[in-house]
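Run log // design_07
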């Protein structure tokens, strides 16, 4: 079998199971190997029953206890491996047509009650006088420690498992971890992974493991050391592939000459200049500098390839509009591709309003996947009819049916959401148009130069002078009532609020607030006249767009949402951002979320609710109180993480590598960049015989990135 073979080619994968894998984004056998574990379980140390009181006290101080709602009371639980001697065989009874097995334990005055459902055979397994280890959640109920459905091991068996790392994968309903693990093991067996696209010289130069060793040990690590080696190799691969593919595209772009003739900068009646004089605010010095750099590129001999990097709220969107306005005045089309339909709709509305307000008769066209067939036909017709249209949309802009008449400028918003191949797909829609990419990701310039080696870089490092700094605070879960009172007061002033939850709905085994239940909960806490609505990524696009439109019109006062609102949405009347379980988010993501408020003239606030007692979480969140500077926040976050902090560090909003983190793995990023640079200096198009394997691999990588968009 080949890595490109469909996942259904594996044994035991029928049509229904194949669809479940599709729900995870797994379509081929190669995809399943890239479905890396999100974490690894380590078997907890064995704890004698008599030491459970001290264990729970230690976990309480460390903030590691889970909260469980039970019969309107909150109890604390901890996962533990409890060792105890069975004094009396279990008792089996029938309740509601179900056999229930109960076992009572006692050790030095500490009592334990264990219960299993539909497992009567344990009566003969758990023999009196023998020792066992019981693995599961332990809760204190009254005077006894309670465990439901714990796993049972002999002490010898459990000890043999303690050095193992057990992968934990992202799952979907109907597809369990055992089936997923079995499928990955089968894929590793049927594929020939012995051929490595990286030469031995490159691997030795950077201390990298072979690919087959790395892919085996990322899923089923032999040890902590093997896992570290596997991660190092696969992270290097991610960076190397991305940078080398960008470098190969840059080689092609350097040969492209600009065929478009934009008006001269000294032309006195530029529409964009007129709009700038009529804006209710003055552009910052950084915005003006960036616009000049773009205009110089647009009037140069080579096709523009420029990144505009600016922190949240620095005013990148108006720069994009003014640049597209220059294209329209020159008689050319421009296209802006946003990462979400909600954001695309907002850009469309803003651009339409700006054109109407300033008397500009420029067609603004919207093209997204959720449009009806009739609406799409109309959009395609307008793209063919109007030679200077501003076209706004999502990935639908690069679909086959989207044909442009006169495309001279392409803008991609939140660049990190689009790979090199996606940019190239949109570039090929026109006669080699200029490309402008925008990002609010706080990446230090040294790293940005590496990651965006195919682009020139402009930085907007100022925020509008009239924008008030957002006041932030970190509070505990006991402050919810006070927070609700504050929301009520802000809404009474005519303002609105966001409430962010980490989950869409209740998730088994994960104690965190979810949008579905929280929307009902907060509705009960607020006066009846306040309209509360929920928003999350599982909703259909039409429903999401409608809710955001209603929120923008203040028809909804409180929007309970997941991080789907993280990127770009602009509601100036929203003055409160309240984030539940804030410790579960990366600091860069929290900074992005905070940036959704503070966009009007009123003072805005960000309330982060920390639901743990962890000192580390408190220190991390306190960073956001110290600064509104995304670059400072990212740097301080890195200092706190420490080396080897593999999991829980992914910052949504950064380039979406599967394993790599550009801050945590900056050393590998630089090594991959240097290696890619050496290769391209030696062989610009990687056509030499010794580079054929690398060339084939990179071209395959670029194709796969394009397919991700088209799925």
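design_07 sequence
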């Amino acid at each position: 079998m080949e890595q490109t073979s469909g996942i259904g080619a594996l044994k035991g994968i029928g049509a229904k199971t194949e669809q479940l894998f599709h729900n995870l984004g797994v379509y081929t056998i190669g995809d399943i190997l890239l479905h890396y574990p999100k974490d690894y379980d380590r078997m907890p140390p064995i704890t004698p029953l008599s030491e459970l009181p001290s264990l729970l006290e230690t976990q309480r101080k460390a903030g590691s206890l889970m909260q469980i709602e039970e019969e309107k009371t909150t109890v604390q639980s901890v996962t533990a491996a409890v060792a105890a001697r069975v004094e009396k065989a279990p008792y089996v009874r029938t309740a509601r047509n179900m056999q229930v097995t109960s076992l009572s334990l006692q050790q030095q005055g500490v009592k334990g009650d264990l219960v299993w459902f539909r497992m009567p055979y344990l009566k003969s397994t758990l023999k009196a006088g023998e020792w066992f280890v019981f693995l599961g959640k332990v809760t204190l109920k009254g005077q006894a420690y309670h465990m439901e459905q714990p796993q049972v091991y002999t002490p010898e068996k459990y000890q043999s498992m303690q050095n193992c790392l057990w992968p934990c994968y992202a799952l979907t309903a109907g597809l369990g971890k055992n089936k997923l693990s079995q499928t990955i093991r089968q894929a590793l067996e049927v594929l020939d992974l012995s051929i490595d696209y990286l030469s031995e010289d490159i691997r030795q130069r950077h201390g990298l493991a072979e690919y087959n060793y790395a892919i085996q040990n990322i899923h089923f690590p032999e040890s902590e050391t093997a896992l570290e080696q596997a991660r190092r190799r696969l992270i290097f691969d991610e960076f190397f592939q991305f940078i080398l593919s960008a470098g190969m595209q840059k080689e092609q772009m350097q040969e492209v000459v600009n065929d478009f003739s934009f008006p001269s900068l000294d032309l006195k009646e530029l529409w964009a200049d007129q709009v700038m004089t009529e804006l209710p605010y003055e552009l910052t010095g950084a915005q003006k500098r960036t616009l000049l750099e773009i205009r110089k590129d647009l009037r140069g001999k080579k096709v523009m390839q420029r990144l505009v990097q600016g922190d949240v709220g620095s005013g990148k969107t108006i720069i994009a509009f003014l640049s597209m306005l220059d294209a329209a005045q020159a008689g050319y089309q421009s296209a802006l591709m946003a990462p979400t339909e909600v954001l695309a709709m907002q850009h469309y509305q803003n651009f339409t309003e700006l054109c109407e307000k300033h008397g500009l008769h420029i067609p603004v066209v919207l093209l997204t996947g959720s449009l009806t067939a009739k609406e799409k036909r109309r959009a395609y017709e307008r793209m063919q009819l109007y030679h200077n249209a501003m076209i706004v949309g999502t990935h639908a802009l690069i679909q086959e049916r989207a044909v442009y008449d006169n495309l001279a400028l392409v803008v991609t918003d939140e660049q990190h959401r689009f790979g090199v191949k996606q940019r190239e797909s949109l570039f090929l829609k026109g006669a080699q148009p200029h490309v402008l990419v925008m990002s609010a990701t706080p990446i230090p310039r040294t790293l940005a130069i590496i990651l965006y080696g195919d682009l020139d870089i402009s930085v907007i490092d100022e925020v509008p002078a009239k924008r008030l700094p957002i006041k932030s605070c970190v509070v505990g879960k006991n402050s919810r009532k006070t927070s609700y009172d504050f929301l009520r007061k802000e809404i009474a002033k005519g303002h609105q609020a966001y409430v962010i939850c980490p989950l869409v709905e209740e998730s088994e085994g994960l104690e965190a607030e979810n949008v579905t239940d929280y929307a009902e909960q907060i509705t009960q806490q607020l006066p009846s006249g306040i309209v509360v609505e929920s928003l999350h990524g599982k909703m259909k696009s039409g429903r999401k767009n409608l809710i955001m439109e209603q929120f923008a019109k203040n028809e909804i006062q409180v929007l309970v949402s997941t991080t789907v609102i993280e990127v770009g949405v602009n509601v100036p009347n929203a003055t409160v951002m309240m984030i539940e379980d804030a410790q579960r988010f990366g600091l860069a993501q929290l900074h992005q979320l905070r940036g959704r408020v503070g966009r009007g003239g009123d003072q805005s606030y960000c309330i982060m609710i920390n639901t743990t007692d962890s000192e580390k979480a408190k220190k991390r969140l306190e960073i956001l109180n110290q600064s509104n500077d995304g670059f400072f926040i990212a740097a301080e976050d890195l200092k706190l993480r420490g080396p080897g902090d593999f999991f829980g560090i992914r910052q949504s909003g950064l380039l979406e590598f599967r394993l790599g983190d550009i801050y945590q793995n900056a050393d590998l990023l630089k090594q991959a960049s240097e290696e890619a640079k050496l290769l391209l200096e030696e062989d610009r198009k990687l056509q030499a015989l010794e580079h054929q394997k690398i060339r084939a691999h990179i071209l395959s990588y670029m194709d796969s990135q394009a397919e991700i968009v088209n799925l």
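Residues 70-74, 642-654 have pLDDT under 50 and may be disordered.
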